[in-house]
Each structure stands twice: as structure tokens, then as C-alpha cells.
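Hey,

The postdoc asked me to send both predictions to you directly instead of through the lab channel. I've kept everything plain text so nothing gets mangled by the mail client. Protein one:
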Amino acid sequence: MPDVLSEKALLAMPEADYMNDAQQAFFRALLLRLARDCEQELASARQVLQTPPQSDPLDAAVDEEACRHQLRFLARRQALLEKIRQSLRRINRGDYGYCDISGEPIGLRRLLARPTAQYCAEVKTRLEENERHYAHSRTG
């Protein structure tokens, strides 16, 4: 496998090279690294949950809150891992880096900031505005 681009080299490429083989390899390596880190964090968090607390019964409320915190962490990490896997599947299909709604390029800088992005900034902004409008109209 050829060397993976550096972030600087990636950003220096012309727009016409968007999502070429080298850029796809860069993001595949990044996503695989993120998936591995996420899997390790999940395994560690599960281990903590499987270890029964050795505290005084008076500390049960503290232990219960810590357990709830770990469960929330697990849920967030599990959701992130699924998004990473979806992004890897999009690379394999050849549609990674393009907005799921408009088909426009998401952009390298946005993908560097959020490698699991599915929408270009314009569409994401519109979706968030629609969510706020919907949430506001439901409460008002």
C-alpha cells in the first residue's frame, strides 16, 4: 500500500483531485484509526461496568451515578462507531465525501474536522434550522 498523504499534502491538492485514490486512502486510514480507538474505549468502559464497586453501601448513589455516566458514554461511543463504519462503507462504494442530499462535495476541511460528515455545510445548516423551527413550533 502506498504511503498515506499527510494532512498538509491533502489540503495542498487541487480541487480537481477531490476524493481521488490518495484522498480516499487518507480518510480510510483516519477512519480505521478512529474506529480502533473507539473500540478500545468501548472495551475499557465495558470492563469498568463489569467490575462491581467495592464501596460502602452509603456510596451506592455515587456508584449508581458513575454507572449511568458510563452507560451514556457507551451509547455515544457506540453511535460514533456505527457512523465511522458507515463512512468506511461509503468509501468502499465511492460516495464518501459527497453530501447525501445535494451530492455536492462536503469539502476536505469539513471532513478533517468531522470525518463522519454526511452533509455539506450548507445542507447541514438548513437541516439544523429546520430542526430548530420544528422544535420551536412544537413548544409554542
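Protein two:
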Amino acid sequence: MISRRSLAFAPALILALSVLPLPAIAADSDAPKPGIVAVTGEGTARLVPDMAVMTLTVMRQEKTAREALDANNSAMAAVLAAMRADGIEERDLQTSGFSIDPQYFYPDRKNNEPAEPVITGYRVMNSLTVRIRDLDKLGAILDKSVSLGVNQGGQIMFTNDDPSAAITEAREAAMKDAVSKATTLVEAGGAALGRITQISEQQFRPQPMPVARAEMALKASADASVPVASGENAYRVSVNVSFEINQ
């Protein structure tokens, strides 16, 4: 129970609390914030490829779906057997596409009325993605595949089984580039570069290159492999970096 005496002192207590200083954090919020400089740095590292990834397609067209499928199966089975005989491992052979499509003939219109399309045959396509780890075999494998029935082909991508070292080199070069750009900008303005406040990164891997297609292989003689050139892969890293500016 609150006595009359304690109530008598309440106004004095409230007055004392009201004159206490505000926390220091409130004063800090009014302090000027350092300026920010944001730059983009880029770095590239090059690496000789040690693996090729290519897509080979067998396409067969016959009057019936059964005939087209049988013809396609026979050709693709021969291609797979040849791949395995050349030392391509099962992990490096993957079916990447398969389709059976009717082929239509569209008669001319009569009396401006559309005519019903007529099925004239069926087309079967079977695509195989192959990873070749011995690039010395690439040209011969392309040539043999066409001889065994491959009649369509996608692009070849020369790549690396483990590009991590090249990516690290490109990343370090990108950061050095960012620091150099930021330092130049800030010092030209009469200030000094402060601490890093934010970093973001983007990686750019090599894209497929149309250096060898099945159409090229069709022109190769029976005893000559397809000429190919692997060149170098460029691994590029871009970083967006923000720094404080020390005035």
C-alpha cells in the first residue's frame, strides 16, 4: 500500500528522471556518414581445354513410325558401340533428346476451304551428348560417327574438367582491378579509400563454339578425321565493390 508520504515525493522523482541526458546513440545518429564509391572490376584467366562436349543426332524418316524407329535404333546402337570401343566411359554418354514426329502434306485449298493434312511418314530423332576427355580422339570420333549414321550435329564446347584454379585467378584479378579503379577515383578527389562495405560477383564461363558440326564431318573423306582446333578457354569474373571514402 502506497503511503501519503511516498506520494509526496513522486513529483520530484518524475522531475529528476525528465532531466536525465539522452543515450549517446541518439547523438551518434546525427554524425555525418562517410561517402561511398562503387566500382566494377574485371579479371580474366585463360586455360587450355582438356575436354570436349558435343551433341550427335541420328535422324531417320520412313513411311511408318515403326520403320523409322527401327532404322534409328540400328544407327544409334552402332554409334554407341563405336564410342565405347574408343574408350568413352558410360558416365560420358547421355541421351539428351528423343522424338517421333509425323510428317504432314498440306493439299491446296479447294473453294477456299482448308483441306485435311495427310500424314506422309514419320521422323525419329535421337540425340546423344558425349564428353570426350582425350581431345586427340575428337576428330576421329566425329568422322566415325557420321560414317555410322549420325546426320545432324550440335555445337562442340571445349571446356575444362576442373576450372577452379582459373576462376580463382580471374577473381583475384577482378578485385585488384576494382581496388585500383576506386583508389584512382578517390585520390583524384583529394580523399582516401576506406574499408569495403559490399562485394558482389558474376562469373562468365566459355560458351559453345561452332568449330565442328556434323555437316563438316560429312565432307571428310573416309580415311581422314575431322580437323578441329581447341584454342583456349577464357574464364571471366566481374565484381561490384563498394568502399567508404575517408575525408
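Summary for protein two, as requested: Residues 7-20, 210-223 have pLDDT under 50 and may be disordered.

Thanks,
C.
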